[in-house]
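Format notes (please read before filing issues)

Several people have asked whether sequences and structure tokens are stored in separate files. They are not. Every record keeps both together, in the order shown below: the sequence lines, then the token lines. Line labels are part of the format and must not be stripped during preprocessing.
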Amino acid sequence: MPALADEFPAARLHIVTGKGGTGKTTIAAALAIALAYGGRRTLLVEVEGRQGIAQLFDCAPLPYKETRIAVVPGGGEVLALAVDDEAALLDYLDMFYNLRRAGRALRKMGAIDFATAIAPGLRDVLLTGKVKEATTRMSNGKRVYDAVVLDAPPTGRITKFLNVTAEMSGLAKVGPIKTQSDGVMAVLRSSQTAVHIVTLLEEMPVQETIDAIADLSATGLPVGAVFVNAARSSLLPPADQRRAVTGRLGVARIAAGLELARLDGKAFGKRLTAEAVEHALRVGVQEESRERIAELDRPTVELPRLPGSLDLADLFELADILRQGGVA
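Then the structure lines:
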């Protein structure tokens, strides 16, 4: 199976999605760190207003301003941005109409909320437009960012969120809004972009991954890697794994082992056997899910389940695993 960096050598905009609860924000953060190695500069963007990035990096809530949140060995750095739809609309009005002051007045009147309520697709154009602007921004003839990582909406909404041309077709046939949405789609459908999906080795997340890949492909959006998060290793030898799944892991054998360790086999044997069977069944579901993911024939990287609450050191550990998996 090809590595991501080999299959998408020109990718600079990395969009990370996944079913809720799969850890997509964590993986987006680790990916931004991985892409910053070698003295590179990456921007990590969130668009859902949850301030998940600030919580991961244990920093103050992110403003609508690109802020450095991590330094990477070798001189690289990660900046972060929380895109606010109101602020993005002010940027838009200033860029196309020189109406930033008028935009502030509209915000006070509540007109911005009204506009995005009657035309929900406009909000997505504004959010993706800001991401596109950062991806293509130049300074002194050079790209400002070597890579941009977007912590995107979940898989259930990702295709609609990214397919801004279709969402805006009923609102604007010509004019700056149409130009903006067309420009965004040109970048999203180009070799500069890869849409990655985070999943768990469980039935529902894997099915959502399969469905999302089909939807994204049908829309012409480039599907990147599948990141399998929080994968568990079997704690049982292969033979005992098979016995547990088929109900042949006897309590007497477990109890005898406990007695050899000078533990009360009678008191704990039955409980430990039940836990072993439960663990084996969970590992079996993982193997079935892993086979379904392999059939997708996408670059795949597995990341382990890390104990306790995640901290910055854990993010760097995950970033190293992503680098070893060929993402950068």
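For reference, the curators noted about this record: The CA atoms of residues 15 and 150 lie 5 Å apart. The mean pLDDT is 83.
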